[in-house]
Amino acid sequence: VLTPWQTMNDFTYGFGPSDFVIFVARLGIGKTWSLLILLLFAWQSKRRVLIATTEMDQLRMSLRVLALQLGIPPDLLRKGRLGDGRAAVETAIAELEDQPGLYMVGGGNYRLGFDSVEAAAEEVEPEMILLDGAYLLEMPATKGKGKRDGRFDKAAETFEECKQFNLRMGVPVVATTQFNRQARRNSLAGAEVENIALSDTAG
Q1: What is the C-alpha to C-alpha distance for residues 41 and 2, in angstroms, rounded to an integer?
Q2: Distance of CA 4 to the CA centre of its chain
Q3: Are the C-beta atoms of residues 176 and 131 closer than 8 Å to each other?
Q4: 3-state secondary structure of 103
Q5: Cβ–Cβ contacts within 10 Å for residue 66, how many?
Q6: Neighbours of 189 (CB within 10 A)
Q7: CA 144 remoteness from chain centre
Q8: Whole-angstrom Cα distance, residue 155 to residue 83?
Q9: Which of 199, 200, 48, 69 is nearest to 130 (CA)?
Q10: Which residues contact 178 (CB under 8 A, 6 or more apart)?
Q11: 74 with 63: CB under 8 angstroms?
Q12: Residue 49: which of 2, 93, 107 has the closest Cα?
């Protein structure tokens, strides 16, 4: 699955079936937007894509996708200040509803279980899966009992489950997570594996 970024395609030749890719950055840098740009590009390239959102509800995420597709500021949609652009938005929504291949699963109040994501993936059979805020995914109740405790171990278990999920599904999985506070703003020195929030097992 190719990306919208030629430099990344030159390095990776696109994302393949066994690839588990992590986008990591500080809070508010644009991880979700990057994921949505990737989503829209893959879908417009006739790929079936599933995105799971843990950091916002499905309506807010859908508004961002729509804004990207139309090339308009998302705040205009969120605040309902469309003016003469309302008809174009309604047309775009109708087109989105009629075209298969773009699927979304989300949880309310930042709660989304890994089993829900896997069930959705098995149903829609995507060619790429995107996990926004992977570190917030809730593991099945049977996972990790008596083995792990605390936020660090939960995050480590999440990354392990993401990779196993990637192998089970046989499609590329792209996830977002955050740097921790040790990663200094505007500093390349902080962009290292050990500064990924909550877990150094991601690398």
Answers
A1: 9
A2: 15
A3: yes
A4: strand
A5: 17
A6: 8
A7: 24
A8: 44
A9: 48
A10: 24, 25, 26, 27, 31, 135, 196, 197
A11: yes
A12: 2
CA distance readout (Å), 146 to 115, 142, 149: 20, 10, 8
What is the rounded distance in angstroms from the CA atom of residue 104 to the CA atom of residue 130? 9
Lookup result for tokens 């994302």: 15
**What pLDDT is recorded for position 96?**
72
Q: Letter for the amino acid at 190?
A: G
- What type of residue sits at position 187? S
3-state secondary structure of 70: helix
Q: State the pTM of this model.
A: 0.78
From first to last of the 203 residues of the chain, give the pLDDT tens digit: 999 999 999 998 999 988 999 888 777 778 888 999 999 999 989 999 999 988 777 778 888 888 888 787 777 777 777 777 777 778 877 777 777 898 988 866 657 888 888 899 999 999 999 998 887 788 766 455 555 556 666 767 778 888 888 888 899 999 988 765 554 555 555 555 555 555 455 66
Instruction: Dump pLDDT digits (tens) for 62-103.
Output: 888 888 887 877 777 777 777 777 777 788 777 777 778 989
Q: How far is CA 102 from CA 65, 68, 81, 94, 155, in A?
A: 10, 14, 26, 14, 28
